[in-house]
Design goal:
The protein is an alpha/beta fold and about 325 residues long. It contains twelve helices and twelve strands. The protein folds into two domains: about 220 residues, Rossmann fold (3-Layer(aba) Sandwich); about 80 residues, no CATH class. The chain starts with a strand and ends in a 7-residue tail after the last strand.
């Protein structure tokens, strides 16, 4: 890929120290996000998708801790930044849309108070300038009657409108990277399609890269150029969307794709992936997917696979594809 690298994660490990033991939520991942692209991270609940995004933003909640690795953004290692420097980067150069907008907005302040506060902090605007920018942003995200919208409280808006507000707030400072964590999960199908189209259109208008976190492969297929498949705290396959969807290499990716119902294909039962995501306090030795993998061999139970290139823009971590 000829595009410049915007975000480069190297050897990231994020652990949670609990009374039961150390949860290795992220255990040595590498990931690259290029400028002006949308990359989707997919996987089952509990595989580490959201922890990855929180690690990038230095928002890992206690008892979590980033134990190792590097997170390079625009040529700077974010893990060496002070808390003050990270506050300036968050919301400015990197923004995030959370899964539930109602829990992300303060219910006792108006929408206008909250978006103007963001603009005044990160854009150094006065109250009038921030208000005018907020109105412009709301027009951009297709919110009706933008001026009236500023006077509303979160509980007065529908889920779809709240998500548009959150997208507007996230894009108000024109970030280089937008992290969207399950942005359409709580929305009905019609509103979901509208939000995805809005994100796709705004990405091209503002030339913002998007890191989309979801369990829904259909969402990834609609707006992503590349996809990274995550399992039990590690990436198992990364590549161009079309290549991964049409010719998946890792048994887990293949299993995920087979669980999707398809029009015109009548089956009595949908395919499933047997078993469950392993306990990350005591993960299985070797490949973490081997207890559920129909193609597992002795080496899978003994040694953890490394990520290898299997084609142009396509990598997989599986002993079926040994290093050259």
């Amino acid at each position: 890929m000829d595009k410049d690298i915007l975000l480069n994660i190297k050897g990231l490990k994020t652990y949670f120290y609990t009374f039961d033991g150390v949860v290795k939520a992220i255990d040595g991942i590498d990931l690259t996000v290029y400028e002006d692209e949308t990359l989707g991270i997919v996987g089952e609940t509990g595989c580490g998708k959201s922890v990855t995004s929180l690690s990038v933003l230095d928002l890992v909640p206690p008892p979590g801790k980033i134990e190792a690795g590097e997170i390079w953004f625009e040529g700077q290692n974010l893990l060496t930044k002070s808390k003050k420097e990270m506050r300036e980067i968050r919301g400015g150069r990197i923004s995030m849309i959370f899964q539930d907008p109602m829990s992300s907005l303060n219910p006792v302040f108006t929408i206008g108070d909250q978006i103007t506060a963001v603009l005044r902090v990160h854009q150094n605007l006065d109250k009038y300038q921030a208000r005018q920018r907020a109105i412009k942003v709301f027009h951009t995200v297709r919110l009706p009657d933008a001026e009236q919208m500023l006077t509303k409280y979160p509980h007065e808006l529908s889920g779809g409108m709240l998500q548009r507000v959150m997208i507007g707030m996230a894009l108000s400072c024109q970030p280089k990277l937008l992290i969207a964590d399950e942005p359409t999960t709580a929305l009905d199908v019609t509103i979901q399609a509208q939000i995805l189209k809005l994100m796709h259109d705004l990405k091209h208008e503002m030339r913002t890269s998007i890191l989309l976190i979801t369990h829904d492969l259909g969402v990834v297929a609609k707006i992503c150029q590349r996809v990274a498949v995550m399992y039990a705290g590690a990436f198992v396959e990364i590549g161009d969307l079309r290549v991964v969807f049409q010719a998946p290499k890792h048994p887990y990716t293949l299993g995920l794709l087979r669980t999707i119902p398809r029009l015109g294909h009548r089956r009595e039962r949908l395919d499933t992936i047997k078993g469950r995501v392993p306990n990350l306090i005591h993960p299985p030795p070797g490949c973490r997917f081997h207890p559920r993998c129909p193609q597992a061999t002795d080496i899978c139970r003994q040694r953890r696979p490394v990520m290898v290139k299997v084609g142009a823009g396509h990598q997989v971590a599986c002993h079926l594809y040994p290093p050259a």
